[in-house]
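Quarterly update from the structural biology core.
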Amino acid sequence: MTTEGPRAAGPRTAGPRPCRPPATPGVRPPAGPPGSALTGASDAYRRWGLDRPLARPPAPPDVKPALGRSGPQQWGLPPIVRRVPTDRRVVFVTIDDGIEKDPRFVEQARELGLPFTGFLTDNVIGTHYDYFDQLRLLGNPMENHTLTHPSLAGMAYDDQVREICGQRDILWHRFGQQPKLFRPPFGEYDDTTLRAASFCGVRTVVLWRAEMETHGLAYRSGDHLLPGDIVLAHFRGPEQLEGQSMTEWITGLVRAIQAQGFTIGRLEDYV
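Predicted structure, tokenized:
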């Protein structure tokens, strides 16, 4: 992940606020009309370089699976998840930061019915939250990735609260709903991070088991996807992707997922 721009001080908060009712439904309906963010246009996959449409994910579980922590469980701290407990042939795409704001990706996400979760960092987004609101209105939640993308492990508690609660407040102001998922930059955290995240209203800390790199998927262990894997990607463009556009890169990610017999689900339906 990259950390562009100067470190900006975020607003201090006296304590967690009660969550407002979400501005958009929290759970996708089971079906959608052709061309919607759920089904995708019938032939849109060809336009984006796929061999077949993205298969509809299985219905979400009636009860979300229990999530454990890495290491000893401490009461009141959010669980940490790299992989969702499921035997369904579904994985979850997450896209971080917000450096690239390619308008064609909005078209791609809409036409393919691509579900994903964004984790946004304020200092690379600047005044362009309207771009990410377009993606959110397609049904793709926008969650918390701090104000300035520091490595949180080892930072003082107040500084971690400023980073996490500060971005929470911006997302709340911009989108009218409080983020409940949090991804620590670089995947680095300590128990202070978990205490700060809990204070800021975080329900789950989301890491990953596979990452989309410039030349394909890389795995934290093994050499293939597993059911329930969380996959990390980034909002990146040609400068970061050796000349590839973001839409070409996302097409490569979707093809890799399909080639292994998986489809893509909505993370918030499971965590």
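The chain has one domain: 80-269.
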